[in-house]
Amino acid sequence: MAREKSVLVVGGGTSGNAMAVLLRRAGIAVDLVEAQPDWNVRGSGITLQGNALRVLRDLGVWDEVRAHGFGFDSLGLTAPDGTVLHVSEDIRTGGDDLPATLGMRRPVLQRVLADAVRASGANVRLGTTAEILTQDDTSVAVRFGDGDEGRYDLVVAADGLNSATRAAVGIDTRPEPTGMAIWRVAAPRPAGVVRTDLTHGGPCYIAGYTPTSDDTLYAYLVEPNRDRATIRPETYAREMRRLAGGYGGVWDEIRESITDSAQVNYTWFDRMLVKGPWHRGRVVLVGDAAHCCPPTMAQGAAMSLEDAWVLSQLLTSGAPWDEELLTRYYERRVDRVRMVVDGSVRIGQWQLDGVRGDLPGLMGTTMTALKELP
C-alpha cells in the first residue's frame, strides 16, 4: 500500500488556504503554518472576478461567499462630482452561472476559507513560522518557529509578497514599487451603490468603491506613492478624508464615515513575476510569493486562487511529484499571469504618464482570455 503523501503549506492567506482544502480533498496529509496568531483576519474589502469565484465554488465555499458578499455584473465610470458618465456590462470570466464580480469584506472571506481548512482536516499551526533546513530528491526537512521539526514530500510557499521561503530557496526576485499607492477603508453602503464605480481624475489617479455586502462597501483612492515615514498612522483617517474631498456624489457619504485611522489601510502598488520555474527542488511557490500586480484589474486574488487550483490538479493527477510535474505547473500559469501583471501595470503607467490608453480594449481582451480555464 502506497504511503500517504504529505505537504506543508507555508502561509494561510487566500492561496495557501485553497491549497490546503484541495489537497485534503484528495486524501493528502496537509500541515498549514501561518505566522499570524489570528490567521490574518483583517483588511477592508476585496474584489473577486468570476474566475476567482469559479475556484471558490470548486472549493465548496461559494454558497457562503455569495451569502456574505455582493455580486454584480456592471462597472460604472463617474466624473469627480459623482455624475455617472458610462456604465458597461462586465464579462463573466467564471461562466454565465456566476456573477461577473463580487465584492466582499476581506476578513469575512478569510474566515470562510479558514473554516473550510479546519473542516478539511488539515493540521493548522498558527503564530509560528517554518524554515527550510535541507531537501533531497524525495523530501524537505523543516524547522518550525517553536522548535519542532518535520519532513514533507513537498512544501508549498504561499507566504506572500515578501516570502521568506522564496528567498530561502535561492529565488532572489523581489517586488518593485510601481509609483502608486492606495488608501482603503470599509464604510457603510449607501443604498444606491450596486456596483463598482470608478473615477479617473480629480485629486487622485483613481477614486472608487465596491459594495461588499448589503450594508457595507470598501472605498479606495489611488495616488502617487509617498514616503510612509511622512504619514503618521494616527492621521490616516484625516488624510483619506482630505483626498476624498475632491469627489462628490456617493463620496459625500463615504467621506463622513472615515473617522477611525485604525480602519484605514495605506499600501504601495508593487509588481513582481518570478522568472523561470516557480520551484526549487521540492519547494514550490503559489500566489503572491510567485507574482503580484497592482489591483487595477482586480485580478490578484483570482490569480492566486488559480495557482492553487492548477497545482492541486497536477499533484492529485497520479503523476510523480518530480521536476517535470512542477515545471508543467509553471508552464500552465506563466503566460496567463504575465498577461495580467503586464496589463495591470500598463493601466497604472498610463495614469502616471498622463496618457489616455485604450482601457476598454485592454480590459476586454484580458477578461475574454480569462474566461478560458487556466
Looking at this protein, list some descriptive labels.
374 residues, alpha+beta, FAD/NAD(P)-binding domain, 8-stranded mixed sheet, 6-stranded mixed sheet, 10 helices, 33% helix
Description:
This protein has 374 residues and is an alpha+beta fold. The chain has a domain at 6-68 and 110-175 and 273-370: FAD/NAD(P)-binding domain, CATH 3.50.50.60. 33% of the residues lie in helices and 29% in strands. The chain is built from 10 helices and 20 strands. The strands form 4 sheets. It has an 8-stranded mixed beta sheet, sandwiched between helices. Strands 8-2-1-12-19-18 form a 6-stranded mixed beta sheet.
Summarize the structure.
33% of the residues lie in helices and 29% in strands. It is globular. It starts with 5 loop residues before the first strand and ends with a helix.
Output the helix-strand order.
Answer: EHEEHHEEEEHEEEEEHEEEEHHEEEEHHH
Strand order across the biggest sheet? 6-5-14-15-16-13-17-20
Q: Which architecture of the domain at 6-68 and 110-175 and 273-370 does the CATH hierarchy give at level 2? A: 3-Layer(bba) Sandwich
Taking pLDDT < 50 over at least 5 consecutive residues as the criterion, the unreliable ranges are: none
